Amino acid sequence: MIQETEPNHTPGSEELLRVSGLRISFVTRSGVIQAIDDVSFEVKPGETLGLVGETGCGKTQTAISIMRLTPEAGIIEKGEIWFRGTNLAKNIDKEFRIVSKKNRKVLKRNKAKLNNLERELADIRGNHISMVFQEPMTSLNPVRSIGRQVSEVLLTHDLPRLSNRILARHAVPPEALREVADALAHQRVSRENIRELVGKYDIPGLEEQITSVIYRRDISEGSKIQRIKGLKQEVNSASLPFLRGVSAQGKIPAAYRFPARIPILRARFLGLLEKEALAVSSELLSMVGMPNISSVLKGYPHELSGGMRQRVMIAMAIAASPELIIADEPTSALDVTIQAQILQLFRELKANLNTSILFISHDMGVIAEICDRVGIMYAGNLVEIADIVDLFSDPRHPYTKGLLSAIPPSDRKVETLGLIRGSVPNLMNPPAGCRFNTRCPFVFDKCSQMPPPIPVKEGHYVRCWLYEK
Amino acid sequence: MKGEKVIGGTRYVHAVDEAQLTIGENEVVGLVGESGCGKTTLGRLVLRLMEPSKGTAFFLIPRSSIDRYRTLTAGSKEARTIEREYSIYRFDRRKMKEFRKDTQIVFQDPFSSLDPHMTIRAIVAEPMKAHHYRPKDEIDSKVSKLLEECGLGEQFLEKLPHELSGGQRQRVAIARALAMSPRLIVLDEPTSALDVSVQAQILNLLKRFKSERGLSFLFISHHLAVVRQMSDEVYVMYAGQIVEKGETEAVFNSPAHPYTIALLSAIPVPDPTTKREKILLKGEIPDLVRPPGGCRFHPRCPSALGNCGWSPDEAIGSLSDVLASSGFPGLSEALKSRDCRIIDDQTFEVHTSESLDASQVESIKRAVAAKKDNQSNFALRAVEDITSQSDTTGATIRVRLTVPLVPEFTGLGTRHFVACNLFPRGSTGQGESNEFGGVEPPVRDGQH
Questions:
Q1: Closest CA of chain B from A398, distance in Å
Q2: Which CATH architecture best describes the domain A1-128+323-418?
Q3: Which residues contact B383 (CB under 8 A, 6 or more apart)?
């Protein structure tokens, strides 16, 4: 039975995400597809873990199961997904996703439980874990402006931040801004410098605004100084209690819920936050290197190129400062020069935000550029996991070796590329034991049983009987 | 604007035509570029799946005729005779039918290029039926033979495309292309929809057919590593133009065009220990409805020169930025306003109500000179002269830009050509150009 809290979990423990023994099956008319079987890995804070594998190996299903976005036919049969002390895979014993006549009663009974789970998940999705998908055109809403889509994330997850920012501008003494502007005019300011300058005034949301102006790349030093000086902004006294309430409660206070919706009063209440969300959106877009931000905010997804759409997706993903970003083939639909730009952006975000990234790709080259550790998946199994350098210099699993030798090298011409014979097995009826045993050149009798993860060295595990001690 | 116009004038279609004749005997020509650069259009033009708005492509033309054709003026009687004989766009029904037998195409997406209603057997037999393959009763055995060569056994014959995996479908598409023993196959991104291990299988298969059957391929791909593995010669396209061409090893080992260099440096290397200096191109591929003048790559080029085709609009933008940060905010605003007038392709002037003396004009010039090496201000490299004229209402500044030079192909080695102003024509002296915009590769004698 799955426990509600992890027994050996301590709040300060090292990993951010731990997936263990995950098994997902898909129920289809022609049978049950065992898409994921016994997948375990962990993501540490600030780390980028890559998941590589071919089409249908289950890398995307693994990733989206972390956010419980598995399609309806998919059932998490077994396993735990621990994220910050919560098991996201709980309630799997009362799985309600298959709706058949027989299950309706169970569904009704579990409705309350389901709602609770959904509420918890809603808090985690976007707020703590966010996602960047492969095809940015289909994951952006075509009928809503970019500005509205990016600010929606903030309005859903980060209301206190928005109101804090407005309150900070209201409360900040003008001399503080002058001080910062002077510092900026005379020398280049560092993050610590600003923290020190702003630290004197205990105003949440102020430092963030000042740094975001200073680190903008699309405006000149002169206009930065002007912008900093112009940060001071009084708020209408009628809106102040509303904003303070939002800051304190983290949501729109009950007393304001109705007035905030009345069109005439909207500008005083909700409208303020919406305007602020748009301002934060433009900061986020500048962070992801978007040109012509003001026109992009008003524009719609179809007006942007693929690379720019992906930048919008990344801006939305980092909007609520999540601890974990799941990037599912974020560069696969892009051209190689645009891909290089987006990878550079991911590297900058890694360095600046210290976010963990679960990076899914089929391209070993991309993985090598961005990841700290990498897991290789084959037919629903995680066959090898290792430090990035170890994996490329010392691959152990026959599949990993085959995969690496099949990559066409860009720096030299080879006569024939390495091959993995045959094709991926049908997961409706996977081979018993190691799922690679139908294609493996080193297959022997023991391969009819599933090998456990065998340690090769610290942090390097391989699921292959060849390395059994 | 029609798709074919993107390709440009006569010479680009011709460039491929020459390459096609060269590959007649067992050559693979790679065509690389990013999406929207026109490589697929070029591939379609080669097969006359599209008609060009200008230009022609010759198929199986004897060496003597192409030599003769080059010396003729366009539209002359003899040129028209040659075109009638060999130009694929002038072929009559009978010749077109022959041409369709001799050329084939394999598309990128094996999921949409096979008819879902037909069995694999019917799909592969289709071209033979369409071309009245005789004797009829051999068709079946030939289908199984072709499929077997492509690595698919008898059990696939009666299957439908949806029962096959992506790699298997692409094998079927290749078997279908081989059915009429063509001379040339255009491979339009044949492996981009496939996984890397399957891609390796398909590439090895294609390599085998090349050597066993003496086939020629036009290999279109955005994947540079794949092109390097496959092709003998490579053409790099950018925004509808070929910017560099040559023997694969020469182009990959010593790329000359800044775009090629950036493209090569952008390939992610599957080796975490090598940390290469990357050239990150700024911006995106230009809109081909209104392509940039001069060299189409100049707005993104990390080493653009003054004569690469900067327009007054680009120069005004950079100049305005530079002036704003060097003490001329009024003039900077004026540049963005209606006070700024573009006189012709190289000149613009701006009127300001402030009066400007000679020393201020000098300091503008100095600011321009100081900032022109920043890549966002490369347009200032085109500024040739700044003059000012004072009048009662203020002053008028007139800026003259360098006349752009459209890059032409320059030979860098025996078989390596680049179209870039960094390599002015005749600077290296190797290889001779002809009016088709390149040095002619050896042309095989046709066999018609």
A1: 13
A2: 3-Layer(aba) Sandwich (3.40)
A3: B306, B315, B319, B368, B372, B399, B400, B401, B402
